[in-house]
Specification:
Elements (H helix, E strand, L loop, with lengths): L11 E2 L3 E2 L19 H16 L15 H13 L5 H14 L5 H4 L2
Antiparallel strand pairs: 1-2
Length: 111
């Protein structure tokens, strides 16, 4: 919201669709060492994560993730195993390869 960009329903809705040109991003970098010893900060964050994971979970919830943890695990898995593609995306890649005359890699060759 610090960027002044739209948020939530300000970006559009399922009835009228998206409102182009309203999105934006804000990034901030903080030098932790300017405030506290980085090792002390890390230890406190680790303690907070341990407490978070130890919270009572709602029925059917197997795990509580700290912010960014799920994304980090997904990135690691994709780096090791590749990014899964649905059949529609694969079909689009095959079509683009045929239209442009690009030789398809072996993983894209089969049906």
């Amino acid at each position: 919201m610090l960027s002044g960009a739209a948020y939530g329903t300000e970006l559009g809705d399922m009835t009228t669709g998206p409102k182009p040109g309203c999105d934006g991003h804000f990034f901030l970098a903080i030098d932790v060492a300017s405030f506290v010893d980085p090792q002390v900060f890390k230890a406190r964050v680790d303690t907070a994560i341990t407490q978070l994971r130890g919270c009572r979970r709602a029925e059917g919830v197997e795990r509580i993730y700290a912010p960014g943890e799920l994304e980090a695990e997904t990135t690691e898995r994709y780096a090791a195993q590749g990014i899964p593609l649905n059949q529609e995306t694969i079909a689009g890649l095959r079509s683009a390869a045929e239209r442009t005359g690009v030789r398809r890699p072996a993983w894209l060759a089969g049906d």
